[in-house]
């Protein structure tokens, strides 16, 4: 029982584990048979981790419904999701593991439901995906294609700069009877107008080497940062790889060593209510490290202080003010709540439905995501508001932001 995926990165042959995941394998095979996956974009590429595909329009299309199961395609009154199998013997141990992308059910959060989207791993020992993605196959040929996808330049959302798409699907062996109403198209259908509208740079279009070098370098750095953030999330140092720093905390540096917490709080309190003000000190000598964090109750007060206090003299030192890039407090709160849960239930480690739902709820609180939008993410629903670009441009250049992060690491 095998399927050949012809992609713009190369051919990929998948062996299906019908004995362990019959429902997921039937869904995948029949979707391939009706050419549902044709021209589906490959997205959410995370180097040495995984990529995702199976949505005919992809996550960047406003018209996308996230993808449907074969039973929903054949009968529109049927729910578009189904319950995939999670066999205890199947783990994300090897590169090329193929699994259904799932999300928590709306009626029962303890259930995982899937539609058409699936994941292929690009690294080994990814137990983080166990119990979150339902394994139903493995890649047996086409690892060169996986390597091309792994090395592709992608934006901050993991979408390749140059389109990578499934061009065609060929069923090599199908043990299942066709469900009622299934009609196999006589030939591969052409892309729909909605699919063509999602094209950024066509997979057969050549990119001029002299063009976009700066953009490619920026994408490379973003991709590297994203991979590092994902690593921190997997080991528990970040609650979520794309967590954003709070916007009501100021980072203040170049302080005079004699400046005290009370001095800063008194000076900055004229802009609004301050929740905390701390000059960071050496743990051994208690000497000031000449930087501090000031947390305001309101974001607007924080922005006003940022605008007014740049290069102001305090104790004969001209200070520098920036918005904090630290998420350490958020991580500490996250770890604290999770550690308390582990002690209560007498267990340890990450993963499981409760941890996943906590992360989904956490992201909803931070990014303002609406629940139940019908989309199927790899592990979490995508979305969230973006920072105001005009304000972002008025902030410090990248070099100063990197300095702020270095200070944050020394603090926590």
Automatic annotation (TrEMBL):
Domain annotation RRM: ranges: 248-326
Chief subcellular location: nucleus
Keyword Heme: no
Swiss-Prot/TrEMBL keywords: Isomerase, Nucleus, RNA-binding, Rotamase
Compositionally biased tracts (Basic and acidic residues): 403-412
Statement: the UniProt record of this protein carries the keyword Isomerase: yes
Residue span of region Disordered: 334-353, 374-412
Basic residues compositional bias, start-end: 384-402
Catalysed reactions, semicolon-separated: [protein]-peptidylproline (omega=180) = [protein]-peptidylproline (omega=0)
Top enzyme class: isomerase
GO molecular function: peptidyl-prolyl cis-trans isomerase activity; RNA binding
UniProt-listed PANTHER family: PEPTIDYL-PROLYL CIS-TRANS ISOMERASE-LIKE 4
Function: PPIases accelerate the folding of proteins. It catalyzes the cis-trans isomerization of proline imidic peptide bonds in oligopeptides.
Family statement drawn from the similarity comment of this UniProt entry: Belongs to the cyclophilin-type PPIase family. PPIL4 subfamily.
Protein name, per record: Peptidyl-prolyl cis-trans isomerase
Lineage: Eukaryota, Fungi, Dikarya, Ascomycota, Pezizomycotina
């Amino acid at each position: 029982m095998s399927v050949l995926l012809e992609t713009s990165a190369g051919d990929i042959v998948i062996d299906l584990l019908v004995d362990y995941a019959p429902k997921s394998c039937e869904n995948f095979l029949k979707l391939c048979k009706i050419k549902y996956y044709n021209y589906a974009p490959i997205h959410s590429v995370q180097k040495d981790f995984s990529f995702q595909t199976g949505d005919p329009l992809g996550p960047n299309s406003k018209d996308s419904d996230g993808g449907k199961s074969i039973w929903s395609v054949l009968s529109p009154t049927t729910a578009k999701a189904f319950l995939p199998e999670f066999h205890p013997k199947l783990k994300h141990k090897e590169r090329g593991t193929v699994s259904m992308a799932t999300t928590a059910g709306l009626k029962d959060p303890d259930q995982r439901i899937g539609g058409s989207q699936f994941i292929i791993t690009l690294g080994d020992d990814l137990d983080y995906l166990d119990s979150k993605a339902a394994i139903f196959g493995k890649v047996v040929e086409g690892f060169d294609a996986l390597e091309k996808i792994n090395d592709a330049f992608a934006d901050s959302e993991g979408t390749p700069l140059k389109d990578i798409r499934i061009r065609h699907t060929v069923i090599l062996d199908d043990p299942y009877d066709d469900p009622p109403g299934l009609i196999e198209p006589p030939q591969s259908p052409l892309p729909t107008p909605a699919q063509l509208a999602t094209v950024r740079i066509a997979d057969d279009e050549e990119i001029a080497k002299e063009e976009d070098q700066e953009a490619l370098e920026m994408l490379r750095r973003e991709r590297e940062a994203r991979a590092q953030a994902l690593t921190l999330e997997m080991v528990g140092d970040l609650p979520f790889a794309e967590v954003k720093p709070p916007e009501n905390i100021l980072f203040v540096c170049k302080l005079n060593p004699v400046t005290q917490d009370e001095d800063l709080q008194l000076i900055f309190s004229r802009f609004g209510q301050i929740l905390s003000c701390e000059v960071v000190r050496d743990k051994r000598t208690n000497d000031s490290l000449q930087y501090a964090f000031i947390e305001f109750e309101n974001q607007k007060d924080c922005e006003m202080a940022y605008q007014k206090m740049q290069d102001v003299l305090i104790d004969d030192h001209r200070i520098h003010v920036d918005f904090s890039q630290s998420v350490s407090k958020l991580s500490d709160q996250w770890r604290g709540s999770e550690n308390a849960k582990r002690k209560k239930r007498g267990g340890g480690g990450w993963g499981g439905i409760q941890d996943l739902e906590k992360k989904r709820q956490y992201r909803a609180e931070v990014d303002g995501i609406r629940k139940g939008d019908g989309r199927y993410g790899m592990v979490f629903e995508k979305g969230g508001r973006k920072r105001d670009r005009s304000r972002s441009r008025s902030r410090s250049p990248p070099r100063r932001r990197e300095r702020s992060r270095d200070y944050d690491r020394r603090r926590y």
